[in-house]
Amino acid sequence: MSVLSLTGVSRWYGTVVAVNDVTFEVGPGITGLLGPNGAGKTTLLHMMAGFLAPSAGEVRLDATPTWRHPEIYRQIGFVPEREAVYTFLTAHQFVLASARLSGVPEPEAAADRAIDMVELRDAANRPIGGYSKGMRQRAKVAAALVHDPPTLILDEPFNGMDPRQRLSMMDLLRAMAADGRTILFSSHILEEVERLSDRVLVVVAGRLAASGDFRRIRRLMTDRPHSFTLRSSDDRRLARELLAAPEVESVELRDGVLTLRTGDYGALTRAVAPAAQRAGVSLFELRPADESLESVFSYLVRR
Amino acid sequence: MIVTLVSLTLRALLNRRRTLLLGLLGALIVVVAAVYRLGDPVADESFEFTGRLLADFGLAVLLPLVAVIIGTAALGSELDDGTIVYLLAKPVPRPLIVVVKLMAAWAVTALLVAVPILLAGVIGTGGDPGLGIGYCLAAVVGALEYTAVFLALSLITSRALVIGLAYVVVWEGVVAGLFTGTRVVSVRQHGLAFADALVGEGGVAGELVLEVAIVVGAIVTIGAIAMAVRRLSGVELRGETS
Amino acid sequence: MSGLPETAGTIYDIGYRRYEGPRLGRRGAVGAIIGAGLRAVFGLGRPGRSKILPWGTLVLALLPAIVAVAIRVLVGDLVDLYSYENYLWGIGALLPIFVAAQAPELVVNDMRHRVLPLYFSRPIGRFDYVAAKLVSLSVALLSLTLLPVLLLLLGRVLATEDLVAALGDEIGVMPGILGSGVLHAVVLASLGLAICSLAARRAYAAGAVLAVFLIGGVVSGTFQEQARGLESVAPFLNPLAILDGTREWLFGGSVAESPVTGADVPLVTYGLASAIMLGVSLAILAIRYRRVTT
Q1: pLDDT digit of tens for each residue in chain A (303 aa)?
Q2: Which of A15, A91, B167, B221 has the most Cβ atoms closer than 10 angstroms to its Cβ?
Q3: Would the ipTM clear 0.90, i.e. be above it?
Q4: Considering only CA atoms, which of A266, A210, C210, A72 is closest in space to residue B91?
Q5: C184 lies in which domain range?
Q6: Would the CB atoms of B240 and A82 count as touching at under 8 Å?
Q7: Closest Cβ–Cβ partner in B15, B91, B242 for A41
Q8: Dihedrals phi, psi of B101, to nearest 5 degrees
Q9: 8 Å CB contact of A86 and B86
Q10: Best of B17, B21, B29, B32 to disrupt the C interface by mutation (most C CBs within 10 Å)?
Q11: Does C233 reach chain B within 8 Å, measured CB to CB?
Q12: Is residue C8 in a domain?
């Protein structure tokens, strides 16, 4: 079990504050670090990987601070965002060198395994300089997990990958998380984070805006009405009935779709079925319309 | 681990363009000696000429130029393009990284400089290896001090190459020429003192006593290594964008 | 209701407009590059740090002349004014430093940041670009090769009683001064730009220029005091010596310290060597700028 913990961590460059008093813990499973560009994601990840010193606060892997403790790299694999790679090495040489430098007992076998895991076997003997962006990403991931680390930190890992590569990388990460590893990745693309992570950390302008399961976060956003879409046998009659209920803030019937807005999520779910019964309408479908990470995110960003 | 580090460094240092260029520089001194030989000179004259050639061109120009290019690139090129992260994200002790890279850089510099100097010395004097060996060994020793200093410099500033060149041209060329006191801290003078001791009568006289050169040179080299280790342990990588 | 005037309502089109005015075309573009190049060489429009080297070198080049002229004019015949060719040779070391410091600014950045396609998708040709850069650097170098010497001439004239007669005497030297100034400026600019165009970074470019002149100078120096034919080779290893020889061939007047004096070579060979240097530099530039994407 590896736990990355940040306590009151801030980082500033002169008068520019990149990370502002952030506290959280990252445990086993997949955690997504989400935020707009410039929010401080890379700064946070670099501090967690021991490449930046926090200006205030502590960053620890289990009990060890990450800064100036190279021994933590036995437990951490890091995939940087920056595109630079050793262009003159082949993927095989690169991953093998990583294995050797990490002190892996059987470097050749480990390198082969890592290359197979990222499906780079065919191109493994060409220089990385000639790779496409997605292939380079995969080579970097292979080098990061060749020493079988319990913690994996990836900065924008899906950059430049086509949909198929992205899916297989997601499968790989899910498999590793199922083994009990701690995986932390950053992205500014909502769908990636939504699809892959168990937990989400939303970073906006250097501050931690929200953390946890994004559906639960949504329910916590009470100052913003939830919306639902309904399908029934008679939408108009149902709409009239629902408008009478005090939980319902607004009702909209447009293009054959009935949309409800409510401030009280729970009360509304209890009120819909009786309202349908009173109106004599059959209810086919009740669906939350804005319980997506996108709506959570745009709400948090605009705050 | 060490083997991998060495192999990585050598591969990065000896890319085609750089090796060709530095090889040509080395070949130049041999060509000059050969051209001189073609004129069929007298023994005494050829000694004096070769001594001046090896000192003024070999130790004063060839050695520092090669050392500055190789020394600043050993760590500098990885710092510059960001691939240093792959090296630092491993549980390799930072002092080991510095020392191994320094050894690799020293070996490359020494090879690229000492061999041409030796050849030029032998050719210039018409077969007498005394001068050549003396200056060759001085170059090897000087290479260590130069590469250590430039390696440390590459960790201090991103403009290490320019500053290194400025040091060689301005400090060692002009300032040390004008102010005798500064000669103690001139790497060139350390090398010359060494050569002087090895070669004896025939060589160009350096300005320093050998003991002083050894002590100051050792202090500078060790100081540079220590500084480099300190800087590498605390190097911060920001990443391109946030 | 009558009596109320009907105000017409209009929606104004304030969207994107094309430019329909006059366009300066090729000449304007080349002029702009030359102007921008001159500003870059002298560090105008940039922080103070980039002004130190060019202006510093210029001041250093002018200083001895200023001092000598000032003494001559104010105090009298205390100091002998330098001869023009000796002065040019004396400040010879400053010219490569200027080129090494500023030529990279002109050429390397455009290539490194892959901005060249932006230039060439405008109405200028490959060689217009190169020619414009050459003109900028040459004109800048002229300030070093001409100004101090002209200042000496002025000093000579001012120091005499009869200004007009002195002017008449010195006028004869003017073509020589102008010619050698232009010669040095153009050849050194071409050489410098050619070397810099081959480098990947400004630091490497500066280093390469310095290395060429440094090594040339040192090797030429080692050959200079020897006899038996090596003395004749010595000048051809040093670009500045070649230029000095060409100057002597075209305009006369020899410099004692220059390797040209010791060498027993017909002066026309220096002219040839200069032409070769110029030709090779231009060829390198032509080849380098044929492919734009690198």
Answers
A1: 689 999 999 999 988 999 999 999 999 999 999 888 888 899 999 999 999 999 999 999 998 999 999 999 999 999 998 878 888 899 999 999 999 999 899 999 999 999 999 989 988 899 998 888 888 999 999 999 999 999 999 999 988 888 888 898 999 999 999 999 999 999 888 788 888 988 999 898 889 988 888 777 776 766 667 888 899 999 899 999 989 888 888 899 988 889 988 877 788 888 888 989 998 999 998 888 776 777 777 777 776
A2: A91
A3: no
A4: A72
A5: 25-288
A6: yes
A7: B242
A8: -60, -40
A9: yes
A10: B32
A11: yes
A12: no
* Nearest residue to A210 via CA among A34, A37, A9, A43: A34
Query: What is the number of structural domains in chain C?
Result: 1
Considering CB atoms only, which of B49, B65, B169 is closest to C226? B49
Give the total number of structural domains in chain B: 1
A38 touching B, CB under 8 A? yes
Between CA B124 and CA B104 the distance in angstroms is 30
C18 lies in some domain: no
Strands A29-34 and A182-187: parallel
Residues in chain A, total: 303
* Whether C158 contacts chain B with CB within 8 A: no
- Across the interface, of A37, A85, A102, the residue whose CB is closest to B83 is A85
The residues, ordered by sequence, that sit 6+ positions from C42 with a Cβ below 8 Å of its Cβ are: C51, C54, C55, C140
Domains of chain A are: 4-214 (3.40.50.300), 219-289 (3.30.70.100)
Residue B238 within any structural domain of the chain = no
**Which of C253, B222, B209, B242 has its CA nearest to residue A203?**
B242
Q: Give the span between the Cα atoms of B199 and B185, in whole angstroms.
A: 22
DSSP A7: E
Instruction: Please state the pTM of the whole predicted model.
Output: 0.80
